[in-house]
Design goal:
alpha+beta, 2 domains, two-stranded antiparallel ribbon, five-stranded antiparallel beta sheet, 40% helix, Beta-clip, 7 strands, single chain, elongated
């Protein structure tokens, strides 16, 4: 009996290990594409790309992987006020010291503010920001 390469290929492709390998290859390829695209993004658009990844992207990738994102925000009062433009969802890096969240930047996210932050908060689109002392959900960086 002659070997049947088509039958062997179908048997190989239906193995769960193959599906896992293809999934990881596609995931790594998409990450490489995203990083190369990010390298071409002007510095002014980098915070927007980071915000999209934190608010949407990591949840989509986790869902595709068949798992979830462990998102355990900590509720802390704000040390200073946070202002935002109505109609924009804004990501604000915060530093957590002595049980309060100190906003480090609002509007433009600098790398210095991101490096010095412990987590981040989200200002919803229908809000002008938060007053000092308002309890907010601080999420740690992934």
């Amino acid at each position: 009996m002659r070997p049947n390469p088509l039958y062997d290929a179908v048997q190989f492709l239906t193995k769960p290990a193959w599906f896992t390998a293809v999934f990881w290859l596609l995931l790594l390829a998409s990450i490489a594409i995203a990083l190369s695209a990010w390298a071409r993004v002007p510095e002014q658009r980098t915070p927007g790309a980071l915000a999209i990844w934190l608010l949407i992207g990591r949840y989509l990738v986790a869902k595709l992987a068949g798992s979830g994102v462990a998102d355990w925000p900590v509720t802390l009062p704000l040390k200073g006020k946070v202002t935002s433009t109505i109609g924009l969802i804004e990501l604000v890096p915060v530093s957590c010291v002595s049980g309060v969240a100190k906003p480090l930047a609002s509007g433009y996210l600098s790398l210095q503010a991101l490096a010095g932050s412990d987590g981040w908060i989200v200002v919803p689109a229908d809000s002008e920001g938060f007053a000092a002392g308002t309890p907010v959900a601080v999420r740690p960086w992934p």
